[in-house]
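Supplementary Methods, section 5.1.

A reviewer requested that the exact input to the structure prediction be made available. We therefore reproduce it here, unchanged from the version used in the analyses.
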Amino acid sequence: MSKPTPNLTVMPRMFFHESDQPAQPLNEVERRYDADFVATEAYRDSLPDMSLTRNAIQGANVPIQQVGISGFRLPLRFVSGDGSTQLLESRVTGSVSLEANIKGINMSRIMRTFYEHQDAAFTPEMLATILRDYQATVGGLNARLKVSFSYPMIQQSLRSGLSGYQYYEVSYQASLDAKGTLRRFVIFDFVYSSACPCSAELSEHARATRNVYAIPHSQRSKARIKLELTDGATLSIEEIQRHCLHALKTETQVMVKREDEQAFAELNGAYIKFVEDAARLLSEQFDADARVKDFEIACSHLESLHSHDAISVICKGVPGGFVADFTDFESLIC
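The structure derived from this sequence is encoded cell-by-cell as follows.
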C-alpha cells in the first residue's frame, strides 16, 4: 500500500525585529523590477537615510579623522600654461572628519559636488572652491580633496626633429580645517635618467690605465615634487616641468632615432649626478620661485648596480611645514 501524502502547508515568511520578538506574518515580497515606477518628491522624502542614524553606531563611539571616497573617476577640463583647456580623465579622493555620535556621511554628495563643477576650467583655485562647497554640503569640521590625472605635453627629440607626448602624473590637493584655513598643494612626478659619477670615473680609469672598454651605469629615476603655493599664486604644470628640466637636464625621452640616443648618452655624460645631487638641484630651483611657500622633494634612483634603490628627500625648512619624511613617498617607484 502506498503511504498517504502528508498535508504540506506553505507558511508565510516571518519578519523579526531587533528585539527577536516575532512580528506579524507578511505577504511574500514580489521579486520584480518596475521600470515604470517614478519616485515622487514625497516618496524620496520617505526614504530612510542611514547617515542620519544616531543610535546604531557599531564599535567605539569616537570621532573619525577622515571618511569619504577614493578612486572616483570623471573627466575634468584642466587649464594649460597658454590658457587653453584640455579634457582629461581624473581620479578623485575626498574625505571629511566625522564627529562622535554620527553614524556616517552621505558619500554620493561628494561626487555630486564635482559634477556640479565638471564644465569649469579646473585649477588649484577651482579645487578650493569645490572644497568649500563640498564641506558645506557633506558637513564635517575638516575636509580634504585630491584630484589626480595624467597630463600630456609635447616633447621634442634632442636632434632628429621628432616629437611625441610625454605624460606627467599630477595631483591637485586642498584641505580646509574647522577654522577655515585653506591649504593648496600640487604634486608632480618627473622621470629622468641618472648616470652615476662614481661609475663614470671608474670606467674612465679602466680605459686610461688598462685600455678596457667599460660602461658607467645609469638608471631611470623619479622625482616627486610636492609644493604648497602662496595665497593667490598660480604655478602652471608647464612651469613646474620647466623647473625640473632646468635643474636635472636628463629627462627621459619619448621619440628617438640613433642621433637622439647618442645625444642622450652625451647629455647623461655632461650631467652626471648622485641622488643627493638631484635633490639639491631641484631644491635650488624651487626655492628661488617666490610663488612656492613650501616644498618637499623626494628622489628615487632605481639602481642598475644595486638590488635596492637610492633615495633622497629634501624640504624648504618652513617652521611647521613639510618635514622630509620618505615614508610619505614609499609609493615612489619608476
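The chain is about 25% helix and 30% strand. These observations are discussed further in the main text.
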